[in-house]
Known about the structure:
2 copies of one chain form a homodimer.
Chain A: H1 4-7, H2 23-37, H3 44-51, H4 55-58, H5 65-77, H6 88-105, H7 108-112, H8 121-133, H9 141-162, H10 174-189, H11 194-201, H12 209-242
Helix pairs in contact in A: 2-3, 2-5, 6-8, 6-9, 6-12, 9-12
Chain A binds a DNA duplex (30 and 30 nucleotides) through helix 4.
Amino acid sequence: MTIDFFWHERPRSTRGPKPALTLDAIADAAVTVADTEGLAAVSMQRVAAELGFTKMSLYRYLPGKTELVALMLERAIGAPPELTPGEWRARLEEWSTLLLARYLAHPWAVEATVGRRPLGPHELSWMETALACLSGLPLTGSERLDTIAVLAGHGRMLAQQAGAMPGEAAPDGAEDEMVRAMGAVLRSHGDRFPHLTAAIGEPGGANQAFDYGLARILDGVEVLLRDRQDQDRQVTRADAQSA
Amino acid sequence: MTIDFFWHERPRSTRGPKPALTLDAIADAAVTVADTEGLAAVSMQRVAAELGFTKMSLYRYLPGKTELVALMLERAIGAPPELTPGEWRARLEEWSTLLLARYLAHPWAVEATVGRRPLGPHELSWMETALACLSGLPLTGSERLDTIAVLAGHGRMLAQQAGAMPGEAAPDGAEDEMVRAMGAVLRSHGDRFPHLTAAIGEPGGANQAFDYGLARILDGVEVLLRDRQDQDRQVTRADAQSA
DNA sequence: GGGAACTGTCTCTACCGTACACAGAGGAAA
DNA sequence: TTTCCTCTGTGTACGGTAGAGACAGTTCCC
């Protein structure tokens, strides 16, 4: 079972030849391959070759590729950081930004986190860290979870489209061509998409997408908190009045 | 090139035997397979078999699998709806909800929209529809684009984790087991994740995640708009004073 | 009717994940 | 020290994938 893999201690019996590899070494090699050539390039063969072994030897350490990817992900995301003390909003901003940085450092991580899958220790720790920021605020458990889900989702979305941005990191010029091709499409079919053409054509202020979305989401949370506090105050006043 | 596939009219020469298939039929078959067995089950072989042909015959219609998936996506997402007239916020709410519904109807669509890829006509039309809602508001082009990106990202995120939710749609009981296993992990390692354990353990109010996030995001946009309007009013007042 | 163009199929290559059997290594027990 | 037993890494094999290229048959244009 994939999920046991992270949490269950694997006892090492002392009999027989000593393993030449470690899970960490395998995960590192796989992460290196993914970082440089993309997640699609990560195959048992490729990773084993990177280590100088045959692909079947990896199965002595891992039940299958699913577990390898899960391991890569845990290693790429890493443990959550210590956030600087302060207001909940500043802390969540820091948390989101740092999470985005991890995703940007390993763009394949977005691809690796689609679909139903068990969460690893580091992933849960990131959640825990974010939830701690909301501690003490008048939000229900679901609202706390949903809040950090929205924030994490925003970061993931941005990391995903970061590769397609006309930024500095242009791997092999392929993206550039895609952007150029989409531009050509808009030029020739622009009449069907007037608002889109106008919005894209408008100059300035690109690459602010993450900060913009983050600010809107946190503004929204702030509105909710203010509403709750107003409500509390009214209730308190009513209580005082009825007393 | 994948991108030409949607926009470039393919001229049909009248010579030779008439094609037995159509792109629509192929896309429909592929969508059916994906809907019932997941995106992983969509292979050239499988789709061709569904139509009673060999896989190589599909390559007479499609350059490759990339184009097939792009075609499936366009078909699954479909054309954007006519939104009911009204305030921008209500319209964007409707837009987001309808987009989520499309994703929920074809959960594999989330998986199919990861990574760098060209957008199809329907996808651009959805963007256009959302941007039209923001028309006339004091937002820059980038802000408009970022706004709908956040909304779309939120819907996608929710559609993704909808499959993992302990809801009604429990395909083959596997999800149930994963949720159960994660619960077991939290029970045995809960001390490492106190806030998480508390938030999950808190009763009530599940399955509101989409509405919650949507409300927060739109609240945030509303705050920005109010700020802009206040600013405008101040500027106007200052102009009047200086005049 | 003949040539040209297009159809669907067949064969082939190069991968992928992984099940299984097996020779050798090396500590534990005799 | 010798035997045994377990664990290691590897070789082979199987069914799957995407796709290239050659091929025979069909159908229209000249």
